[in-house]
Amino acid sequence: MPSTDETFRQELRSWLAEHAPPAIAVATTAEEAEVLREWQRILHAGGWVGIHWPVEYGGRGASATQVAIYNEELARANAPEIPGRGGLTLVGPTLMAYGTEGQRWRWMPRILTGDDVWCQLFSEPGAGSDLTGLTTRAEKRGDLFVVTGQKVWSTYAQFADWGIALVRTDPRVAKSKGISMVAVPMHAKGVDVRPLRQMTGESEFNEVFLDEVEVPADNLIGPENEGWRVARTTLANERGGGFIWKQQVRQQEAFELLWRTCAGAGLLQDPVVRQRLARSRIDVEIFRLHNARTLARLARGEDLGAESSLVKLFWAGASQRLYETACHVLGPAALLGAGEWANGLLATRANSIMGGTSEIQRNIIGERLLGLPR
User: Fold this and answer.
1) Strands 144-152 and 118-121
2) Are 364 and 309 within 8 A, CB to CB?
3) Which end of the chain has less neighbouring CB within 10 Å, N or C?
4) Nearest Cα to 153, choosing from 193, 114, 181?
5) Element holding 219 (H helix, E strand)
6) String of DSSP letters for 129-151
7) Same domain, 77 and 157
8) Structural domains counted in the chain
9) For residue range 294-313, what is the model confidence (pLDDT) as tens digits?
C-alpha cells in the first residue's frame, strides 16, 4: 500500500479515536435522526464527509483506494450510517454528471453538512424490479411540474428534506422513454410519507404518496424525458459504491464472532457445523477477492458498469447465507443476548431486493457481461 494511503488510514483512525461515533445503528425517531445529523456535522467539520467528491465541491478528491479505506475504518469503529448518505452517494454524483452549475451550488454544500437530507423516490408498488414501468406522472404547467403518484421503499424519507424522483413526463411513449428526474421538496403540500414497519421492528423504509405536488421546473435534473439515462448513473453508484468495503468488514466480523461463539459452545467438534462454517468462510474470502478486483479497476479509472451488479448479487446471497448458517448451527441460542443473529436473519431478507432485485442483477450480468440474448 502506498505511504499516502497508510497516512490517510492512520489520520482517520486517530480522528475516530478522538470522536466516538454515537451508538445508534438505525434512526427510527426524529430524535435519533437529529443525533445522526449532528454526527454528520462533526464528520464534516473534520473533513470526513463526501471524501470522494472533487475538492471544488467540498470533498477531498480521494482516490478509490482511500474511499475503500474510509469505509473500512468507519465500519471497524462501528460508526452508524449517516442520514445524508443518499445525498452523498447518489444525488451528489448525479448532479456532478447531469446537474446545472446552479443546482450543484444550491444543493451540494448542504448535502455535505447534513443540513439537507435526501431520499430516493424510484421504486413503486407496481414498478420495483422493472423500474421503467413506473406510473408516477409529472404534468408540465407553466414553470411547474405537478407530480402525482406513489413511491415505496424510500429509505429515511420520513426525515428527508428532498427526494430525487423518477417521474413520467411523456405518457405517450412506453418504458424508459418519457421518464424524467426531478428534485421533489419533501415538505411541500401534497407529500404524504408513511413509514413501513419491517420484520425487525424498525421503520427505515417508507411509502410516499404524491398528490399534485408542485415542483419548480428548474428542479429538473438532466434533460427532460431522458431521466432513465440520468438514473443509470444514480443506480451504478448505489450498486457499486463504497458500501461494499463496509459490508466486507461487517461480513468478516460477523463470521469471526460466529466462529468464536461456536468454539465457546463446543460446536466445532461437529463435522456438519465445520462444513457450514467453511462455506461462510469461503464466502467471506470470495467477497474480499472480488472487492479487490473492483478496487483495482476503479484505481485504474475504469468504469464498473454492469460489473457493479456482480458485487450486489454476491453480497446479497453471501450475507443471507451467513445468518442462515448462524441460526442453524446455534439453534435457540441464536435468540439469546441482543438477538443479533435472528435480527440479522430477518434484516438480510431485504438484501436481495434493495438496490435492484437479484433477478434483475442476473439479467444485467447475462446480457451485458456474458452477451446472452435478452
Assistant:
1) unpaired
2) yes
3) C
4) 193
5) none
6) SSGGG---EEEEETTEEEEEEEE
7) no
8) 3
9) 888 888 888 777 888 888 89
Domain of 353? 242-369
Same domain, 76 and 171: no
Same domain, 252 and 159: no
**Are residues 365 and 298 part of one domain?**
yes
Which of 238, 307, 359, 367 is flagged as catalytic? 238
* CATH code for position 191: 2.40.110.10
CA distances from 151 to 62, 128, 193, 337 (A): 34, 9, 9, 37
Q: E strands along 129-275, which residues?
A: 137-141, 144-152, 162-168, 179-185, 191-196, 205-216, 220-221
Task: Report the CATH number that the domain containing residue 355 is assigned in CATH.
Answer: 1.20.140.10
Q: Which amino acid is at 31?
A: E
Share of the chain above pLDDT 90, in %: 74
Q: What is the pLDDT of residues 314-366, one digit of tens each?
A: 999 999 999 999 999 999 989 887 688 999 999 999 899 887 789 989 999 99
Looking at the fold, whether 49 and 140 belong to one and the same domain comes out as no
The answer to whether residue 238 is catalytic is yes
- Grid cell for residue 136: 408516477
CATH number at residue 52: 1.10.540.10
Domain membership of residue 97 (yes or no) is no
Does residue 213 sit in the same domain as residue 253?
A: no
pTM: 0.87
> What does the pLDDT look like over 258-280, one tens digit per residue?
999 999 999 999 999 999 999 99
**In the numeric block, which cell numbers belong to residue 133?**
414501468
Same-domain check for residues 250 and 179: no
Q: Which amino acid is at 324?
A: E
2 falls in which pLDDT band (50, 70, 90)?
very low
Helix, strand, or coil here: 194?
strand
Q: For position 246, what pLDDT does the model report?
A: 87
Contact 166, 227 (CB under 8 A): yes
